[in-house]
């Protein structure tokens, strides 16, 4: 199928669906074979947390998409302020809002272009 | 501390609580992420139906963004599908963790029901389940999952739908800021979970990924995850090994 075929994009969407859900299905099959109390289950969880935090920090440091049109000078201080407020107060909402406002202000002060 | 209270076990109350929890940063962040996705999808030449189908069927932001941007760049089918598969590989571990959190195995949930349920899993839902664990009774975790994941799915599809048109109205600085709150929110949620071990794993992974990224590119996520997770587990693996050796030594003696 060539890219100008009318159904090309739909085939691509279907393949992307399979390429994603196959991992979810593997996950279900795997989870049903691992004892919840085992060290292997703990390890898989630990890897999942490390991976997700890796993905999220990468959005801050090397973003793609919309956020890429902002500077590191806006993104990094925003993360630091969020962390500091979170450690000091434990209030997720306030910490994240403060981080967002920091990002907004710094992105306005130091635009990327 | 909410964790000191007896966990809520009434499924209907739990589902309502989950729906309330969606409203706020989780729902808002996901809605605008999908608005952002719709914007780049439209730019890449997707119609509304195609963009909606992508959100509904793939339901995982990194994979969706990879797919649309590679399509725009004119990449081959094989390259696009491989990139989507790589970006969403972490889903497998999140699903294992979620199945464990919900207790599908313990409560004997049927395989088909499990396979369908996990399609609706997003990072936001997974981390939410980890945070409410203990506040919600084990047998009501599935009700919480449904009450959180399904409204979030609807919100995501609405975001894709409206994003197609909103992108001309909402100023880019606002959109960008709201999209940026998602990583902040997820990271702070990880900081809130009760398990010290998993918080440490998150910290190591979060530090390693940006260090490895310039060398490994997208693979940095996988490597940071495996190295980070293994590193924090090392003391436990060593302890388990020692315990095994002690048991073996005892068995030999008499």
Biggest interface goes to:
A-B, 73 and 103 residues
Strand content of chain A: under 5%
The largest sheet of chain B is: none
End-to-end separation of chain A in angstroms reads 40 Å
**What structural category characterises the helix and strand content of chain B?**
mainly alpha
Overall mean pLDDT score of chain B? 92
Biggest β-sheet strands, sense, barrel of chain A: none
Helix-and-strand structural type of chain A: mainly alpha
What is the N-to-C order of secondary-structure elements of chain B (H for helix, E for strand)?
Answer: HHHHHHHHHHHH
**What is the overall silhouette of chain B?**
globular
Low-confidence runs of at least 5 consecutive residues of chain B: none
User: How would you name the oligomeric state of the polypeptide chains in this document?
Assistant: heterodimer
The ordered string of helix (H) and strand (E) elements of chain A is: HHHH
What is the helix fraction of residues of chain B, given as a range? over 70%
What is the radius of gyration of chain A computed over CA atoms, rounded to a whole number of angstroms?
20 Å
Please state the CA-atom Rg of chain B, rounded to the nearest Å. Answer: 21 Å
Number of domains of chain B: 2
Number of strands of chain A: 0
Shape descriptor of chain A: flat
Count of helical regions of chain B = 12
Low-confidence stretches of chain A: none
